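Problem: given the chain below (141 residues), write out its structure.
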Amino acid sequence: MIWFKKDLQLNDIHRMRENNMAEHIGLEFTELGPDLIKARIPVDHRTNQPYGILHGGASCVLAETLGSIGSALVIDTGKFICVGLEINANHIRSASEGFVTGTATPIHIGRSTHVWDIKIHDDNQKLICISRLTVAILPKK
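Solution.
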């Protein structure tokens, strides 16, 4: 298990989506495994582009939220903060209804940086987006 708090449960992370972008787009955490975190967002008026398909920026919000919160769950937040340093997203196919679900797994968990792989699938398990997020780990002031 990679999490800082070994007894961490899915309910413990729901508060991290309140009063921010994640809540605004309807993000819901769905799974917390020993080395992964999953969440989903609806494909609706909050996340669509004018063509009626999922906005690439919404995929990036899902990916960055998963990786950033994943990093926050790995570090001692009493001593450190984590901030996104770089995100890359390849949009593979569109989604026009239902939900898309992101799964974040760590590629690298270092002292000063973390790198996350995030794959986003639609309800039919078709790959929508592949993203890589680099997170900086900074001392808390």
